[in-house]
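As a warm-up, study this chain.
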Amino acid sequence: GQTQRKMATSPSMKLIASSLGRRLARTRLVQPTRGGGGGPVASSKTPTEPLAEGDELTWDDGTAYPEPCLDDFSLLGKNQAAGML
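Now compare it with the structure written out below.
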């Protein structure tokens, strides 16, 4: 009874284990060569003159459109936002 069942499952278990082992052996771990969040940001030149007053408020990553570091949220006014607190 049970010995026949064990013998019946033993070859099938060996087959499953060997095919799984072959599949895992073929799989390579893929790791990114760089950060993956876009290209690296180029280093900037050392400033030769004083920076503008609001220089730290603009994110300029070398694209055509530098953007502000702080979000401009104009959906609510400051009084409406304070009323929601």
